[in-house]
């Protein structure tokens, strides 16, 4: 050490960084200790500062599971992580005289030109001890071998995340993940029930249309006289019609119905861009019903049709509202990874659930369009129900017999 004082400076800096990792904050909450090897330092394995815990979690999420795969120090996310960790330590150590002196060991020196003058320094640092810092900060987490780096304590099913996502804390911590899994499963089941209710309504409408089409085709083949498809579909409308359509509906409500049809057209486009073809068909059928009622001076806008249209869109508004409430805090996305163990003839399925913000630019256009459609659907359904109710009340009569 007397011949190489630089080694003493580097050793002191390492000890200070390790002390920063293992010194628990006074106001820190109780943190569950993470188990390590039997050969680890017993005292230090149970103490981790909030700063150290944050960086250990980030490092764990960036690296692959060591037993499955390794990455080299040249990996893009590993280099970004090492750079961010180094700059964090620089910011912390610049106010400490001894630590700042140790940092000068890694600074780059200017290279002299051929004429003897000093050339400007291209790089600020000649060398960054990235591997040493990872082993100090994430002791027991990082494993370094001849193959590369890996997360030594990662559990089966562990997937890497981009370093940018880790810096934004998008990855759920292990302590939170177990508590959130049950809530995510409930949200998915609730969303499946809501989508199932809409699919059942659409299925019934399609069956009715096919039944009418089949009966019409059979009558045309036998030469019998039959009503048109529109007359059969809306036969209850014709039988319950109480006089002509009110003037208030023709003059005041018609323009709102046309605007509603345009909204349904936009919903169809949104459903198609979001990848939900079944939802696009459902919205197209509702929009087509609105156009059928309002066309030709609202001659087909009967009380029965308004009643059924308003009832159906009202129920759908409730289902969509419950669905949007379940995912406003974040939309869960899941990925399933299959591992085949041919030695033991075993196949393992690991499902990873990650909750993303309702609108997230990192997830792409399709994800954000789906979120926008989910948000707009209950609004359009509610407007449809309110407009159908207003047009229904414009009639002076009623579908239901009044008690005398």
Automatic annotation (TrEMBL):
UniProt-recorded name of the protein: Uncharacterized protein
Keywords annotated in UniProt: Membrane, Transmembrane, Transmembrane helix
Top-level taxon of origin: Eukaryota
Residue stretches spanning the membrane: 277-294, 306-329, 372-392
